[in-house]
Write a structure and sequence with these properties.
Structural class: alpha+beta
Bound molecules: zinc ion
Helix content: 25-40%
Distance between the termini: 74 Å
Mean pLDDT: 94
Number of strands: 31
Number of helices: 21
Strand content: 25-35%
Strand order of the largest sheet: 5-4-8-2-1-11-14-13
Shape: globular
Radius of gyration: 27 Å
Length: 637
Amino acid sequence: MQLRQFFGALLAVAGAFTILVPATARAAEPNASAVSYATASDPEILLLDAREAARGLMVSHLTIPVRPGTFTFVYPEWIPGEHGPTGPLENITEMRVSANGHALHWERDQVDMYAFHVRVPQGVSRIDVDFHVALNAPDAMSTKNVAIVNWNRMLFYQNGTASKDDFFKVSLDLPHAWGYGTALPGPTQHGDRVDFGVAALNLLVDSPLDMGRYYRHVTLWSGDGTEQVLDAFADAPQDLDFPSSLIDAYENMMPEALALYGSRHWNVYHSLLTLSDAIGFEGIEHHQSSDNRAPADFMTNPVWQLTAGDLLTHEFSHSWNGKYRRPFDLWQPNFQIPEHTELLWVYEGMNQYLGDLLSFRMGIRAPSKYPEYLASIYARMDAESGREATPLIDLTTGAPYYYAARGPWSNLRRTAGDFYTEGELIWLDADTIIREDSHGHKSLDDFLHLYSAPALTGPITKPYTRAEIEHLLGDVQPYDWHAFFERYVYSVSPHPPNDDLARAGWRLVWNEHPNEFIAARDRARHTDDESFGVGLFTDDRGKILGVTQGSAAWNAGLGPDMTILAVGGQTFSPEALHYLLRETEHASGSIPFVVEQNGWVNTYEVSYHGGLRYPHLERIPGTPDMLAQIMAPHRAK
Ligand SMILES: [Zn+2]
């Protein structure tokens, strides 16, 4: 009641154009049947003033074609590649709506928080919507020297239209002397102003833009009249001093992808990369580009290429698997209609395998290291206790919520990351089945050629169903693929696929030698992973991040968010813990852990005599090494 009166007072000032929208007004169920007023010849205008990017603000000026009467505009909610209703509504600040210079009253929908209603007066054919975009919540998108533009964060569009029929004309004001990179077509630059050609909304949202003070453009591949470019932007110029050997490896990305898929579905491709410790680690795929975000020393510190060298390859592979081929119900005609995510075990699960595979085939990571990598992910998935209750299909169907889940006990709850990592194990299993049953004549590469045919199209989307995936696999190699996925995806599966290791000529072994990938991840993240032995995952200052169910640490009563102050009488450090675990392997008795929790200090007696314990793969003598065949370079010489 009070708010109502407040708006009434505002209206008196605003002038004759403003009429209160009835309180009952609300958006209809999301649909895409409305005729778009923003056409190719009369597009919606977006002028993005990015000159204040360094302090986390941009200003968006929209001019939206309208018709008189009630008009509803919406903020994109379901964001492709993010697989959830993640459009950051809280980024919109100081929104003002006007027509011909007169303020218009706007009202948020009572049910759909992403929809806004205005009453458009007679004689008005376009409205202006101006707002500040806060860039750094919930995730960091700008720093002093770098900024990322995801256009869906910067605009509204007419409710109920199909995004392929909603046209935009975009201009951008860069901070002075900053460079930019994007796959958005038709840029022309005059000073710090960049104007783009008219683009449909789906292409615009699919074409993010990176900008920054320090930048480097590297042509990784060119041919067929097109090219793949790395557009890198860094917080500090020295982070752009990439070793030439690493660029050599990245130049193999397109040749290896061509060998893998036998096709291309982009006109030009930009691997956008921000190098900043203030911007989180992230990768978002698009048809003709990818929005990759990595730590400042990602390209200069080899530990990052070892632990996360699949960042750019994973997103590149998505151009084929995810953008061109997409689950039939994940694709939606606009950004308000909910995506269905259950087939992410193909979209993300297979892509995790292919992104890793490309990184090894390209030489970003030595192909000989794949068995060690495989041991690390197999052991991690197998140790996850939540898998005894929760099938993979629940993780993909519930993906929007699993992606957002935070806090301890992720090994019990399971995580969105599981359908990536376990997906890799499932698709590797499928690859080894095809190779064995075809006596080495066929592989998953043959499936991918069928899957991504024809050889050349522009950035279009061809949807698929589970049945089609199983059918295509059967065309490559007859097998009961339906039962295969039923077992590993659609049912509780107490273990990941575990016959592929033997089929590939390898077996899992445990010893006290650190796994190279687990150790590298610990170095990069300042953690200590003893999940497979005593059952503790901590940071290097003793804060417990995870406890393995059924382990000695679990049995002693330890849990996440406790901090280990001392072990065996010594102040905690990973080195002190390792020493103690080695020393007590053949001793009796328990190890005292002095632990602080919420201001209380207690001693927990951990009865453990298993020593240090890490996973590795070892060759089965006399068998062919299928992993070496899979990870060997496949590109044309
Ligand atoms: Zn992905």
